[in-house]
Specification:
Chains A, B: It comes from Luedemannella flava. The structure is a homodimer. Chain A contains 14 helices and 15 strands. By secondary structure, chain A is α/β, with parallel strands linked by helices. In chain A, the strands form 4 sheets. A 5-stranded mixed β-sheet of chain A has the order 6-5-4-7-10, sandwiched between helices.
């Protein structure tokens, strides 16, 4: 029950609204900003002048101006000058990117993540290398990291590590690396891989305009990023979305979490490889099974169908609980879903209530495997977009 | 990405904030309002004057004013003059109440709901009787109804009716009844029983101050009212929260929804009565089994323990998905939970991730069986609290 903001708070809020608009939608004319944001022309002009003075946007004549009359200036985010760092720590790989305001990837680096390997140093090295090369007039406004607490041992088995410890180590290490170059660098914000992939697809991917979305991320285990009523469902301690540990098969196999018959024991990497009677680990091994099924390998086909049925089983449960308008299959689940869409849909039809399932769309991510990385960038920009002048001055 | 409100919108917003405060917290001094709402004294004074002129609040000297100096006036909602209607349609009973601003029940009526019985007329009769008796200076600001689409046949079996049709019939019938007395009566707002029970407990029950809450409502079937980040999770079409149709036992019994092994087939009224080898139906029959277990009936004890284990199973899944700070057991599940808390906790410990479960509190409703009715009243007041002067003038 908070009361209303002051005039200065309104101005700062509006600065954020305008900057967020061009960050998400790209270069936009003043005329479109006036119409879309419900502010008058002079207010848009004043806000744009403030953001220009802060070096966050610049104004240009439109390229295709052919009509008579005075053209509406185009407001463009300063994507080369203003940037954030984005990192993703997944089971088998580490990715890092420097991302300009507006979501433009300026530099990107990816390395495999070995068993029991240090995750901080490869990412910190990217920061040091990149910071040594960028111009003096650039501004780093934040850093975000998408983290999976799952890790792989030398024997190929994955285990659920201590998420809180990993997040702390990562944030401390990366913040320290950046602080060598940027005195006032804000601390690195860390969040779950699936939550950030959902944020990315909701902001600039397949789920733009959808307010009720479930993003399922397969990466050895299975996590969920959930958006309900346009906002992330993260729970009391930020640990929500652990859909991979929803028990679907009480008579099923033991799970690394200590429970039995968790969804990820039926649809994770192991489940598919075991059903296909194959060795190997990781995303490539999953893709190989799906490819073999496509080429007619009957064992692989049966494995894909079996996993697809369990995939549909859990999706039906989530559809009954959330009544989403879209479910997105990301990571390893992208390939699995595309190869077993028939089984997924059949289960959904049989198990979900008509009212809950009739408008749901099943999709794969627009941002492909970089959805978590893009989401980490959005997390990094959040502080700037909430209060542009304060964050830009820091 | 909406831009900021105008001055007039701010004033109206602040009127709603102030009125909501006294509606929820009860009579409040101007001094406390100034401190709690972050507005200055003169603004509070002006807002209170507007609300007083509209007949929504009145100001009084505090009863226990003993200190020296000028006392801070107490702002009190006009609970006898301004009221709403609340209705609850449950499987075996119908309830109706006239509820004053501030959540004070002024009149209340309850009738059993017979098999295949008309639900509109008993509630409409309450409206006509009540409206004939209230004073001419009273204002009805809205009506809300909590509805379960489950109904009972003459043989005692329940079935899932057409929720949309029931909601439409109910809204039309009750709106018509009220229109005989109130020309500008707003239409009756209808929502699911569990959603409204969750709203009531969150607003003025056991979950006040908790932003992540799951309310489980047992009434033959099982529904869920979910609050995440302080807001109701209702889904794309408003059909979310169907946790009773989460499949927990793939080898389980057929469910009325057409699926198999749904949670409600293991924890609903039938499940308990069948396990206890008893006839009978309804809430009393459930209570009888729980009472028998308490008195030492070994068959009833085994039945309660079995249902308790399945109750904990589903709660563990929901805790992994939502990371709530509180789970509330309402309707028939209240008695079942109280008698099987050991089994519920044991399952929760075994199946839910430590990070998701470590801060969760398991509770029963403060508002007992009237949680849905109180929630319907909150729904009815929503329009007034969003824009007090507009709604009060209607």
């Amino acid at each position: 029950m908070r009361a209303s903001p002051t005039q200065e708070e309104i101005r700062r809020h509006n600065l954020g609204v305008l900057l967020r608009y061009v960050h998400v939608k790209g270069p936009t004319s003043r005329a479109e900003l006036t119409a879309s944001l419900g502010l008058n022309r002079s207010t848009i002009g004043a806000l744009t002048a403030d953001l220009t003075a802060a070096g966050l946007v610049r104004e240009e004549l439109p390229r295709d101006h052919g009509r008579t009359g005075r053209p509406s200036l185009v407001v463009r985010p300063e994507h080369e000058r203003v940037y954030a760092y984005a990192f993703a720590v997944e089971v088998d790989r580490l990715t890092a990117a420097r991302v300009g305001l507006g979501g433009v990837v300026l530099d990107r680096h990816e390395v495999p993540r070995g068993p029991d390997a240090d995750v901080v140093e490869p990412l910190a090295a990217f920061v040091r290398r990149t910071e040594s090369a960028v111009g003096a007039d650039t501004v780093c406004v934040g850093s975000g990291a998408a983290v999976s607490a799952m890790a792989r041992r030398a024997d190929g088995r994955v285990y659920l590590g201590d998420a809180a410890e990993l997040e702390e180590t990562l944030a401390a290490g990366l913040t320290a690396a950046l602080s060598e170059f940027r005195k006032a660098a804000p601390p690195v914000a860390v969040r779950n891989v699936a939550d950030l992939a959902a944020l990315a697809e909701h902001t600039r991917g397949v789920a733009v305009g959808c307010d009720n979305v479930i993003y399922l991320h397969g990466d050895a285990g299975v996590g969920g990023g959930i958006i309900a009523g346009g906002r992330a469902v993260t729970g009391h301690g930020g640990h929500g979305g652990e859909v991979g540990h929803m028990v679907v098969n009480p008579q099923g196999r033991g799970c690394g979490c200590g429970s039995q018959g968790c969804w990820e024991t039926e649809i994770g990497e192991y489940a598919l490889l075991r059903a296909a009677d194959r060795d190997g680990t990781g995303r490539q091994a999953v893709s190989d099974v799906v490819d073999a099924a496509r080429r007619g390998d009957v064992v692989a086909q049966a494995a894909v169908r079996q996993v697809g049925r369990w995939l549909g089983f859990g999706v039906a449960n989530l559809v009954n609980i959330f009544n989403p308008e879209m479910v997105i299959f990301g990571g390893t689940l992208r390939d699995v879903y595309l190869a077993s869409a028939t089984q997924v849909r059949e289960r959904l039809t049989r198990m979900a209530l008509p009212a809950c399932r009739e408008h749901v769309r099943l999709r794969t991510p627009d941002l492909a495997d970089d959805a978590p990385l893009y989401g980490a960038a959005e997390l990094a920009f959040e502080r700037l977009l909430a209060d542009p002048l304060d964050a830009a001055a820091a």
